[in-house]
Amino acid sequence: MCACSLERKGMITITVVNSDQKKLPQTGLFLYDISNDPKNERKLIQTLTDSTGKVIWELNYSNVKKVKIVAKNENLETLYLPEMKYFITPAWWQEQDIEILITLKKISFKENLSLLSKAKSENNLKTKETLLDFPDDPISQSIAISQFESNLTPEIIKPILFNTILNTNINKQMNLDSKETEIKTNEKVTITENKNVLFDDSVIIEVFGEAKPLENVQVYLGRNATQTVSFVGSTDMKGNIVIPMPKNRRGDMFYLKRNSYLTMAKPISSGSGRQKLRVDMLPGKSTEFLLNNFAYGFGRGMDKTELHFNSLKVDQSTMLGFVTLAKPFEEKSNISVVQKNAIPEKLEPSFLKKNLEFFNLVNQIPVIFVTSLSPYKPSVGLIEPPLIGSLQTNMLWRRIRREFFSRFMNEFYMRGIIAEDVQRMANSLEMSPLEMAKAGWKNAPFATDLDMIMSIQFKDENDKFTDIEGKVYDKSGRLISERIVSINEKDGEKSAAKLFSLLSADLPIEGSIVKKAKTEVTINIGKNYNISIGDQFVAYIGKSSFSQPDKPVALIKVKSVNEKDSLADVITGLDKIDKIDVIRITRYPEKWIQSELSKQIANSQ
In what helix (H) or strand (E) does residue 274 lie, and over which residues does it extend? Predict the structure, then answer.
């Protein structure tokens, strides 16, 4: 009888390259056993490619029939799409050693800019027939109007840029999926397969008026999480509109507006997948508007504000700042607004009349900007190196990262967004997180969810980690702060704490001027928002009564700090803010003010 061994071993050599056939070192490779059930995969091996982009595994084929290989390169400077390969292990009579070439698709920054430029060009070609005047990217912008003075051609009413980016991502990934794995063997023994599943999260709205489909109904989407209302499009000839609804940026309320019909508010049910919503609008004329506090580039809703009609309270604003009255605005109408948490405390009928008439002329929901007594907490995203390569076993980095992350996520004055969520946002734009930070994301669909970015990494010099480096970017891609701290190896936590403290002191925190007295002003942020004596703020006002406060006109410097407010001297621009109620302020490092904003402030005098 022959004593035969059932154990079969083979060598698997994997080489990872990019589209230019350049070897990719430090690429993460993961081998999974999916013999029994692909849903219950079992990880067998995890390693990184060497300096030549290669890795060699010895695998026992006896108990492994089907395997999956995942290649991920998490380079901070260049984004590579991950790649998955499936194959069946060779039978005993086939060649046992296998060579596999994996090509990762590189998404360059220039390619992304070309994509965005092309999408915007398509938008401009399709907007000649509309009479609206909305910002460049309606799906991601607040409906607050900033372009009235420019008489710009309105943008397309469908969310084309968002769809273009989404479809481009899908098409590129599908093209990659169609490529077969290149395996060099003496005999063909493998089966390759790439799978991609697309879940369509969207809402279809069907709008009817008097039992007939209504076209050109303007649709706005409200989100309580960010207290914003954004224009998303208009219904077609059949009264339909399809609105993408990503799970992490799902809205809470639809507002529908059309001349000769009452403006309607329709809540959105929770859930995923494609949903259908029917809305029947009633004939008539209504009076509605949005009360907004302008913060971090968007109008944020003001709640608990009362609308009075002939001295009677008729409505109170929601968190989104929306107030409405099922009656038309007329000359004899005595409509006023009483605010409990904003300045001015009362909006007079004459002021409302001017604003309502202007916005109703262009069939838009009127927007009125006020000053909030309570500051808005900014959302700050984190960028940090992935735990691969030498960082995977570097205990000093783990200690530094743990201390920094703990402070980052537990500060009262900001909402921390973890690095994984920032990565997903960047992926939707076909960028790496660092590319997105440098290019800016103010026109992205998630712009209301991400106000600024804070990055942290080792400052690597000759493979000696002696310093940690941190940076702060705003949503326009401007580098606000850059700090370097020497590492104390015995107490790395102190180095992390120091770096976070320095970066936090430079964050462009926003607030408002709530009181004025000669050359002094009181602002609505204090120690609770990490404000210190000597901090400098730039004051912004609106270009007109219809505009958001984004024109820099003055400079103030903090002289004393309380728990929830601070007292500051007006350095320049006192005459510009003396008689203005709605004044937004933003803190910047002194050097940045001198290099970036001093000329703009001087020109406004």
Answer: strand 274-281
The ranges assigned to domains in the chain are 9-107+171-184, 114-168+197-305+317-322, 379-506, 510-603
Q: Looking at the structure, give the CATH architecture of the domain made up of residues 379-506.
A: 3-Layer(aba) Sandwich (3.40)
The highest-level CATH class for domain 9-107+171-184 is mainly beta
Question: What span, in angstroms and rounded, lies between the C-alpha atoms of 308 and 544?
Answer: 25
Question: Do 179 and 167 form a contact (C-beta atoms < 8 A)?
Answer: no
Strands 274-281 and 202-209, by their bridges, are: parallel
* CATH class assigned to 114-168+197-305+317-322: mainly beta
Q: What is the spatial distance between Cα 495 and Cα 399, in angstroms, rounded to a whole number?
A: 10
Indicate the pLDDT class of residue 362, thresholds 50, 70 and 90: low
Name the pLDDT band for 179 (thresholds 50, 70, 90).
Answer: very low
How many CB atoms are located within 10 Å of the residue 435 CB?
A: 21
- Kindly tell me if the per-residue pLDDT of 582 is higher than 80: yes
3-state secondary structure of 585: strand
With beta carbons less than 8 A apart as the criterion, state whether 495 and 399 touch: no
Buried b (16+ CB within 10 A) or exposed e, 358-391: bbbeeebbbbbbbbbbebbbbbbbbbbbbeeeeb
- Please give the average per-residue pLDDT across 317-343, as a whole number: 85
The HSE-up count of residue 189 (CA atoms within 13 Å, CB side) is 20
CA distance 22 to 299: 47
CA-based R_g, the chain, Å: 29
Question: Helix crossing, 160-177 with 419-428: angle to 10°?
Answer: 90
Residues 221-245: tens digit of each pLDDT: 999 989 999 888 899 999 999 888 8
- Fold identical between 9-107+171-184 and 510-603? no
The CATH class that applies to domain 510-603 reads: mainly beta
Q: What is the rounded distance in angstroms from the CA atom of residue 43 to the CA atom of residue 33? A: 6
